[in-house]
Specification:
Length: 104
Amino acid sequence: MMGAYNSDETKPTMRSDAELLIEYRTSRSRDALNEIYERHATVLALDCYRIVRNQNRAEEAANLALLILARRPDVVSGALADWLREAARCIAGNGSDQRLVVSY
């Protein structure tokens, strides 16, 4: 989904992370979650790669952070991007302890 259209319906407008998070929290909107994923997954994986120096582990850590968001959006506090980054970096830094995070 490219975003909602503004009143003249010629240019897509981008919803903020806060708007997407509210939408996902209230309705479990698949479109909102997909937009969050598309917006953040690559950056999270790159950030995690700096920690683990392994592409598969970095992508796994990023995906686990997004999975926690999908399962428990109520645990997000503050800015979504900051929360996702911190969660993904914690997961990447814990290495083999990632299985503990999935129980969220």
